[in-house]
Amino acid sequence: MGQDKLRWGILGCAGIAKRAVIPGIQQSETGVVAAIASRNEENAKKTAEALHIPTAYGSYEALLNDDSIDAIYIPLPNHLHKEWTIKAAEAGKHVLCEKPIALDAEEAAEMVAACAKAGVKLAEAFMHRQHPRYVRIKEIIKSGEIGEIRGMHGAFTFNSSSNLGNVRFDKAMGGGSIYDVGVYPISTARMILGQEPEAATVHAFFSPEHDDVDMMASGILEFSGGVALTFDCGMWAANRNTLEILGTEGRIEVPSAYVTKQNAEDHFFVTVKGERREVEVPYRNQYALQADDFGRSVLEGKALKFEPSDAVLNMRVVDACLKSARDRARVVIS
């Protein structure tokens, strides 16, 4: 592209954008946050001032019409991901879309096709997959130190149940714990095992107080060779953010598997034959790593670590989990 930095526009003033993604881009090597848009211009201006963003717009369309913007980050509610990804692609902007990329695999496939047609990059914002500790974890597994993998368990829970106005509790907007946090252990298991699950069985607590979205879900994904991911996710439970990988000879525990503590070392633990050791991993800003993976793909033509086709595959699993929870049945994933 003949430029040093990718110029980002932020489509909305969501908390994840202000708290994590914008600072991550600003700390990245490849990107700058050049503009932000909100349907409330005053909100856009206040956010821009607080986060030192040069330009604020009072509509999403105005941001997409800014020819100086190269890439768009979309942290909008889930039901708006497809619409604004396609509009951004048609405006010639590369797109980093917050997870889950869409409401279902069909929508995700439409988004991938639209971006391919427009010749722009598309990525799903799973920041934790960029962290170098997962490279180290996969190296340990490949070395055979913990033996053959027999199973995995992932947990991601928190309690925000009292905030009844939260978009996560709106069924039409794509609310629910599977969409919001269940996607993390699902995507992580697929990444570590390097394969797609064959079936899903999920049991969920649907709360009438929260528009009947799944406020807690527990499930099992069946992989080949008798290996399974068991997981639970929730928005009305005590905080957990963990991953365990169980092998025939040992296990790996990741205490902060998806969301890491700011400026804290992101260590994990390996136990073999009763001896537990800590694997030291220096702090890395996952959001900056995510921005740089995307930025180098656009600026230097490097392949994304996770192509958009992966997002479609992940949504197929999510679709199966949601169907299983609603129907109270095992769902085969084609």
Automatic annotation (TrEMBL):
Q: Which residues form the Gfo/Idh/MocA-like oxidoreductase N-terminal domain?
A: 6-124
- Output the InterPro entries linked to this UniProt entry: Gfo/Idh/MocA-like_OxRdtase_N (IPR000683), Gfo/Idh/MocA_domain (IPR050984), GFO_IDH_MocA-like_dom (IPR055170), NAD(P)-bd_dom_sf (IPR036291)
Query: What positions does the domain GFO/IDH/MocA-like oxidoreductase occupy?
Result: 134-253
Q: What keyword terms does UniProt attach to this protein? A: Oxidoreductase
The entry sums up its family as follows: Belongs to the Gfo/Idh/MocA family.
Identification of the protein by name:
Gfo/Idh/MocA family oxidoreductase
Species assigned in the record: Paenibacillus agricola
